[in-house]
Amino acid sequence: MRIAHAALIGTAVVLVACGGGKSANTSADTSAAMAPAAAPAESTAVAQAPQGPMTIPSWMKVDKAKKTVTLDIHAGQTPDNNHWNFNGYDKGNATITVPEGYKVVLKFTNDDATLAHSIGVDSAYTTFPPTFTNPQPIFAGAISSDPTDPGKATQPHKSQTLTFTASKAGNYTLNCFIPGHAMAGMWVRFDVSSDGKAGVQAG
């Protein structure tokens, strides 16, 4: 299925590079050429923001005394959305909430057996671009290394740890910056609460 959809993502990237959308730099175009096949077209549908109860799953630890949140986030942990997911969630069907002012320690592991992925806190989107040009995280340190490069981003079975302070309340996203991945649904909601709330809502 990944091979069958390679042409789709390549076409989208070429259109953007030729003026069909946001401009992309040369390194982004090179990365896009290396990008693997896209997830199925129907995966671009965005789920409504989860309205269920907020819980604290086993992969999230909240230390109110130290004002620290620890997140253990895995890319491709399940086959959902062609393995383009975070802890099994995709297309915004989960919201991770941390309190404003807390330090966040995010351990990012790529469980996808074949593809590189990345992660970072980005602006809240209604739609995602096919490629990101020099993405900058909302909070300093809140992005994995070489996030747009399929050859240098977090490789299969590798991990890295991000540490940042959620210094401003608001609605954001956690998304993959590899060309085409966020557009195909590899993102979840990331909220910073002003009232001390912390937890995960799933849809």
Topology, element by element:
Blueprint (H helix, E strand, L loop, with lengths): L5 H15 L5 H9 L25 E4 L4 E8 L18 E6 L3 E8 L9 E4 L35 E7 L4 E6 L11 E7 L5 E4 L1
Give structural notes:
The chain has one domain: Sandwich (Immunoglobulin-like). It contains 2 helices and 9 strands. Helices cover 12% and strands 27% of the residues. Residues 1-43 have low confidence and may be disordered. Strands 5-7-8-3-9 form a 5-stranded mixed beta sheet, with no helix packed on it. A 4-stranded mixed beta sheet has the order 1-2-4-6, with no helix packed on it. It has 203 residues and is α+β, with helices and mostly antiparallel strands. It has helices at residues 6-20, 26-34, and strands at 60-63, 68-75, 94-99, 103-110, 120-123, 159-165, 170-175, 187-193, 199-202.
The profile of the biggest β sheet is:
5 strands, mixed
The CATH superfamily title: Cupredoxins -  blue copper proteins
Order of helices and strands: HHEEEEEEEEE
Work out the helicity level: 10-25%
Strand order of the largest sheet: 5-7-8-3-9
What is the CATH third-level topology name?
Immunoglobulin-like
Number of helices: 2
Strand content: 25-35%
Tell me the structural class. Answer: alpha+beta
Low-confidence segments: 1-43
Do you know the CATH architecture? Sandwich
Mean pLDDT: 83
How many domains make up the 3D coordinates? 1
